[in-house]
Hints:
single chain; mainly beta; 5-stranded mixed beta barrel; 5-stranded mixed barrel; 4 helices
Amino acid sequence: MIPSQRLSSTRSRRAVVFLAACAAFAAVAALPTEDAAAATPEQRPIDIGAARLLPLGTVVTVEGSVTVPSGLLSSGGSLDQGFAIKDHTGGIYVSVATNLGLTLRQRAQVTGALADSNGFLILVPASTGDVEVRGRGPTVEPLWLRTGSVGPANQGLLVRVVGTITQPVAPDPPFGNQVVVDDGSGPVRIFVNTSTGIDVSGLVPGQLLSVTGLSDEFDTPEIDPRFQSDLSQPTDR
């Protein structure tokens, strides 16, 4: 069931996840010397797809191209000025409290702890020093999906769907606005974060809408567009 409102008390759980993961990371650093060496994460990056299969709390190092710039989705969660990255095996959202100014196609290497945020797998660095910019990466094209296929299998990736708007835009202040689209395979929520500045005033039920964005989850799957150009009315499918 698609929730009608993101209550502040619920939304703040993303901040709790962030702080808890940082505390766990700090605890690793505080281990006795002989244990610390064994607990220190391997700095050689592993595939994001492989990292996503590891248990929560595991500290990993991954590298990928930025698909969601820093802070763009900040209105959706407290203490979250993060960004998303993708390699050839998968994508993941990096949750940080400081806007690091990462932009599209920058290549970032990140060491952090895997954590769950309302069903959304995120990576939480212990400090800003655990994020390194390593030049430019390749352009990332969105993965085409049916609306009913958005979910855990493609979570963290840049995706695109085309479907019909089935409900009026539902304001969810101060976080953003919700839109529901369906291509006949099942509905998916489009969550437009206030921080993106995207104008949804022209969207009405019955319109065909093309949506590009981050495959996210807040208890149920959703797509989070990044820019105004991520929402368009296609002339054909």
